[in-house]
Amino acid sequence: MKFMSHILKWVCALCCIYNVLPSGLFLPVDCHGELEKTCSGNVELDVQIRDICEQASKEFPRAYTASITDYGAVGDGKTLNTHAFQNAINNLRSFANRGGLILRIPRGTWLTGSFNLTSHLTLYLDEGAVILGSQDPKEWPLIAPLPSYGRGRELPGPRHISLIHGEDLVDVVITGQNGTVDGQGSLWWQRFRNKTLDYTRGHLLELINSTAIVVKNITFLNSPFWNIHPVYCRDVFIQGVTILAPLNAPNTDGVDPDSSSNVCIQDCYIRNGDDAIAIKSGWDQYGIAFGRPSSNIVIQRVIGETTSSAGLALGSEISGGIHDVFVEDLTVVNSASGINVKTAVGRGGYVTNVTIANVQLDNVKYAVWFNSNFGDHPDNNYDQHAFSLVDEINIKDVSGKDIIHAGNMVGFMEAPFKGISLQHIHLNVHGGGFMWKCSSIQGFSSEVVPLPCPQLQGSLNQAVSQVS
């Protein structure tokens, strides 16, 4: 009965998506109400997306302005300015309830270790301004692991703090005239490759449990680890950001919304050594126990290039769940995969109600990759019966050239991935080997070239015959 209900729901949804009732199709009586609800929901989707981005993009006026030079900083690329940044922020906290403040970073190269932000602050980088991360690990102090991860992501124990950090903040803006935050990550990458890291590397920007965050018109360069990591956050707006790292720089994810909601990412260019965008929500039993999903995520007009990873990834850390994700106008070039849903036994969690539309792929190994055996575990105490539930993923209007494999989609035998809908997908697949590979997957398709696996060749008529 549960399976029939699932099929019915998707038949009704697909009728809306195709904007037509196939000839001779008998629609079950129960579907008319569902159809009306689903179509109404689709009409409202644009409004919901606009509301999420408008809410997240709000900026508030500031009453005061100061310069980092007011606190003794020297922008010669050699003088260490950690204390100047820390003293500036400590002083500016007093302005939080007096209309907020802009901290201006003028043209120059400002070498610094990690510093914490404060609420009601705009960090403004002038044209030609570079915040340059120190290569001394002591300038990136250790902090506690995130509770949804249970340990550092790379190594047990604590982890290095991010270069720009904040926790329990409200109303923070990082912007300017396309200034740069440069993590000088080469030292950290080399230590990773040599296996000489003592603790997990720091991000360039991490904001924890914060609300009303705006990051725009900034370049992030050479992060030691992930670039932008909003975790346990709400109302996050990221726009016009450029993220660059060598294509072989390990784990330099672009933007990783993590157990966060109402996140809008627009008009970004990302060329790096891992996923361009990866939506996450905690790791194995720690993420399951923490139980905070990522939801209401909007991604629009993003270009990604990553030879080792995906333009868009969901996972692999999805233990708190991911739901209500809308992606459109995604371009992925010279990459390992275009769209990647990745998980593993022990992750638990779920991925549901995801729409990905208007995707352009060029020179990509896997156009679509669903992987149920990806990644490692924080320890050996993960639940070997915790399977991620993957359902209601709609991928449509995709074109690709120089594709090696159209799709590699493998769910769990114990919990097959369901409700996968592929529509209007045209891929120029030229590589050897398989076109599609599928197992433990269920779904529907329409106008997909090359023809997908039998498990995904179900049509509306076939689906309705199972419930009528």
Automatic annotation (TrEMBL):
This is Uncharacterized protein. It comes from Diphasiastrum complanatum.
